[in-house]
Design goal:
- By secondary structure, the protein is an alpha/beta fold.
- The chain has a single domain, classed as 3-Layer(bba) Sandwich (D-tyrosyl-trna(Tyr) Deacylase, Chain: A).
- It contains 3 helices and 8 strands, in the order E-E-E-H-E-E-H-E-H-E-E.
- The strands form 2 sheets. Strands 1, 2, 3, 6, 7 and 8 form a 6-stranded mixed sheet that branches.
- The longest helix has 19 residues.
Length: 150
């Protein structure tokens, strides 16, 4: 599982020309599911995202989490994060989870984030053609990969 977490002042997702969901200050998460991901990966990445301290404290240091700033969370599925570019110029998506597993794991991460944060996590629609709009704050962008937990 891979996640790209961006600190944002706002973010939204539009599907078919209609606003689907939006957030104010908080984190936008792009989430890619690997075919070999497990329930342990779901829990690990949800805890990392929820507790990530990328928001400024009163001294201007990145030392606060979403809970500390009462921030919002928007999670978008993005299988292209699992792309392999080892050969040629066309990415391979062979390691991406098949749709049924990908959707189940995506929903499990969102549910775990709901439970950990106590907030209603905003989402996109799995496998939809989405337009994501964001204003990256900082910019601050953090990467997590469950295959590199250490």
């Amino acid at each position: 599982m891979k996640a790209v977490i961006q600190r944002v002042t706002r973010a939204s997702v539009t599907i078919g020309g209609k606003l689907h969901s939006s957030i104010g200050p908080g984190s936008l998460v792009l989430l890619g599911i690997h075919k070999d991901d497990t329930a342990e990966d779901v829990e690990w990445i949800a805890r990392k995202i929820a507790n990530l301290r990328i928001f400024e404290d009163p001294e201007g240091r990145m030392n606060q989490s979403l809970a500390d700033i009462d921030g919002e969370l928007l999670v978008i599925s993005q299988f292209t994060l699992i792309a392999s570019n080892k050969k040629g110029n066309r990415p391979s998506f062979n390691d991406a989870a098949p749709p049924e597993k990908g959707k189940a794991d995506y929903e499990a991460v969102c549910q775990a984030l709901n439970q950990i944060t106590g907030k209603n996590v905003q989402t996109g629609v799995f496998a939809a053609d989405m337009k994501v709009d964001l204003l990256n704050d900082g910019p601050v962008t953090i990467l997590f990969d469950t295959r590199n937990k250490e």
